[in-house]
From TrEMBL:
It comes from Sinocyclocheilus grahami. It comes from the Eukaryota. One of its GO terms (molecular function) is hydrolase activity, acting on carbon-nitrogen (but not peptide) bonds, in cyclic amides. One of its GO terms (cellular component) is cytosol. This is Dihydropyrimidinase-related protein 5-like. Belongs to the metallo-dependent hydrolases superfamily. Hydantoinase/dihydropyrimidinase family. NCBIfam families: D-hydantoinase.
Length: 533
């Protein structure tokens, strides 16, 4: 605070203070943005604003780790910029968001970052940080990632195994990107779906005349997510890089993640409010606009048990984070795909509702016997601050509703009234080599050093060597994007998913190939579930 600035004091009295490790009845005294005292019968200076929290919970402000604000995606601009989106976040009790910088293919990551900062610094009402998408790969991208980490306060990058011909990286490129993340100490976020088979599934669904929102669920079954999750974890393990899987949406993908954790691999998972609460039956609604409003990727899953399963994984820390993945579009924007589901912009809203909805479904429904510490509110699009003209949780009655939100030591939202100014939020630079991720990796590396691979000491071969035959054919080398080419491998006993001939029409190209009578299975797909922690 400058010498001319008045001291800002806030006293929160009589509430139940909830921390990550314990809960207590206490008062909280804040001065100039810093919590100075927590306890009872506090001795504080005069002039403090007193907030009566009797019978209410006092929680740390929420952190929404994935929001898409002022973003152009699939030929549409999101319905929230950093002003309206962060205001909605504050109304929902979230005091910091992490947005996305999504460069176009071959666009400079640094240029895309600077354009985003130019807009967001002038608009944000709460603190924010930024992920940067690695949407293509090459030496320039490698160097720019290092610059963003060193000079720009970025500590996380998002890679895509989906969005073929848009953002998708090949396995060799993903491997190199993960190696680079490890070298610079960044968080490696990966969207895991089999992009090749998603593209094939979409084409075949359209060929069958399936053009509505149900096509998003039909073309992206959960096995394509589970396969990609397993592949992403394998690639990260070979790169010796911690991995953070985003938008985990299915039980099978959750099982793969749980199995990897049991094996000691450094992997973390994030799901979304929508995936943890809703199911994919919405895509089959008779009203096209209703069905399209729920289009996101990976899609919501048909199995009605999936949301509770994902909440259970959050409860036992197999999944670590729940985010809104807020990317709102209007019905008019979604209607760009009215005749072709592949053109419906992917995204749903939720930055305002995230904490209340997860409290309602994950705490009230499973843990609390009464609701004595909470206010009540019914969610409605007519009363929301966030963008979009549909609310996925319409008419859901919530028993945990933010009444007062404090950011940077000032009341910014109280009983439906905002007292924050446009641009009052600040960019929050994030440090690299997160202890939570990289200390675990260091411990794992120590174990692996004890199992280091060694070559066999033997006498050199002194026999004859056959001459290389030149057939006149041009040798095929690696493509320009492969700076470190790897040998092609095949796994016996299973179909190569990248070259699968599976057809939705029913007839398969290999139906006449004799099948093996049996196969020895060492572990079921996704690993054993007998020891999931």
């Amino acid at each position: 605070m400058s010498s001319s600035s008045a001291t800002v004091r806030i006293l929160i009295k009589g509430g139940k203070v909830v921390n990550d490790d314990f809960t207590q009845e206490a008062d909280v005294y804040i001065e100039n943005g810093i919590i100075q005292q927590v306890g009872k019968e506090l001795m504080i200076p005069g002039g403090a604003k007193v907030i009566d929290a009797t019978g209410k919970l006092v929680l740390p402000g929420g952190l929404d780790t994935s929001v898409h604000l002022n973003e152009s995606f699939m030929n549409a601009n999101t319905a929230d910029d950093f002003y309206s989106g962060t205001k909605a976040a504050l109304a929902g009790g979230t005091t910091m968001v992490i947005g996305h910088v999504l460069p176009e293919k071959n666009e400079s990551l640094l240029d895309a970052y600077e354009k985003c900062r130019f807009h967001s610094d002038a608009k944000a009402c709460c603190d924010y940080a930024l992920h940067v998408g690695v949407t293509w790969w090459g030496p320039k991208v490698r160097a720019q990632m290092e610059t963003l980490v060193r000079d720009k306060g970025v500590n996380s990058f998002q890679m895509f195994m989906a969005y073929k011909d848009m953002y998708m990286l090949r396995d060799s490129e993903l491997f190199q990107a993960l190696q680079n993340c490890k070298d610079i100490g960044a968080v490696a976020r990966v969207h895991a779906e089999n992009g090749e088979l998603v593209a094939e599934g979409a084409r075949e669904a359209l060929d069958l005349g399936i053009s509505g929102p149900e096509g998003i669920e039909i073309s992206r079954p959960e096995e394509l997510e589970a396969e990609a999750v397993h592949r992403a974890i394998t690639i990260a393990n070979r790169a010796h890089c911690p991995i953070y899987l985003v938008n985990v949406s299915s039980m099978s993908a959750g099982d793969v993640l749980a199995s990897a954790k049991m094996q000691g691999k450094v992997v973390h998972g994030e799901t979304t409010t929508a995936h943890a609460v809703l199911n994919g039956l919405q895509y089959y609604h008779q009203d096209w606009a209703h069905a399209a409003a729920f289009v996101t990727v990976p899609p919501l899953r048909l199995d009605p048990n999936t949301p509770n399963y994902l909440l259970g994984l959050l409860g036992n820390d197999t999944l670590n984070v729940v985010t809104s993945d807020h990317r709102p579009f209007t019905t008019k924007q979604k209607a760009m795909g009215k005749d072709d589901f592949t053109k419906i912009p992917h995204g749903v809203s939720g930055v305002q509702d995230r904490m209340s909805v997860i409290w309602e479904r994950g705490v009230v429904c499973f843990s609390l016997q009464n609701n004595e510490f909470n206010s009540n509110q019914t969610i409605s699009v007519s009363t929301q601050w966030q963008g979009g003209d549909v609310n996925l949780y319409e008419n859901l009655r919530c028993h945990g509703v933010p009444l007062v939100t404090i950011s940077r030591g000032r009341v910014v939202y109280e009983n439906g009234i905002f007292t924050c100014a446009e641009g009052s939020g600040k960019f929050y630079p994030l440090r690299t080599f997160s202890d939570y991720l990289y200390k675990k990796m260091v411990q794992r590396e120590k174990v692996l050093k004890c199992q280091a691979l060694k070559g066999v000491e033997r006498a050199p071969y002194t026999g004859d060597v056959a001459a290389v035959q030149n057939s006149g054919k041009k040798e095929v080398g690696p493509s320009d994007g492969d700076m470190n080419p790897r040998p092609c491998t095949r796994h016996g006993g299973m179909r190569d998913l990248h070259e699968s001939s599976f057809s939705l029409s029913g007839t398969q190209i290999d139906e006449n190939v004799p099948k093996r009578a049996s196969a020895r299975i060492l572990a079921p797909p996704g690993g054993r579930s007998s020891g999931i922690w």
